[in-house]
Specification:
This protein is of the alpha+beta class. Helices cover 36% and strands 16% of the residues. It contains six helices and eight strands, in the order H-H-H-H-E-E-E-E-H-H-E-E-E-E. A hairpin with a 2-residue loop joins strand 2 and strand 3.
Length: 185
């Protein structure tokens, strides 16, 4: 799932020179020093880009739960034990929850805007008592990998290549994600 999230992040950055520039500036500003908790906290733009990529392309685009008790949702009866499917893919692109929901806009996840995100509008790791136990680790790992990759390489989608999401347990680019990789320095 982290590898898929990183692939989608590199894809989205390859399509946004503005955000690629912002992330590179932030990463380059950290210099050669090894990553520690303080430096991870300085990757504000990078984290926003990563979180926005998981909003648009959640690694787990559907979550299933069993109803613990009978209930009713939007006028539909749900029996005890019924399988309920929640789709982060749909929730993350719902027009009543997100302004311009299909647009890549990492500003949504900058510190000054985080409080405007409804608690259950962003579910890349699930929510509640069964939230992904590895959420913090996966985010930390992704930021470290993005810093390492983007410090040394540029990534460009081959001209004319169409990227199509493919749901097969996780959400991945159908047929992979060919990128032209070039050394930066």
């Amino acid at each position: 799932t982290t590898a898929n999230a990183l692939s989608w992040t590199l894809f989205l950055l390859s399509q946004s020179p503005e955000w690629m520039g912002r992330v590179r500036e932030e990463i380059d500003g950290l210099g050669e020093a090894a990553m520690d908790e303080a430096r991870l906290g300085q990757l504000v733009q990078t984290r926003a880009v990563f979180e926005e990529s998981m909003r648009l392309y959640p690694p787990a685009p559907t979550l299933t739960r069993d109803a613990l008790e009978a209930d009713e949702l939007a006028g539909v009866r749900i029996n005890k034990g019924a399988r309920v499917i929640v789709s982060p893919w749909v929730v993350h692109r719902h027009k009543t929850l997100w302004r311009d929901p299909d647009a890549f806009d990492p500003t949504r996840f900058l510190p000054e805007n985080r409080d405007s995100i409804h608690r259950f509008a962003y579910l890349p790791f699930g929510a509640g008592p069964r939230v992904c136990i590895g959420a913090a680790f996966a985010t930390q790992e992704a930021l470290i990998v993005l810093r390492a990759l983007l410090r040394h390489f540029s990534f460009e989608l081959p001209q004319g290549h169409v990227v199509t999401p493919y749901h097969r347990i996780t959400l991945r680019p159908e047929g992979g994600l060919p990128m032209m990789v070039k050394a930066r320095r």
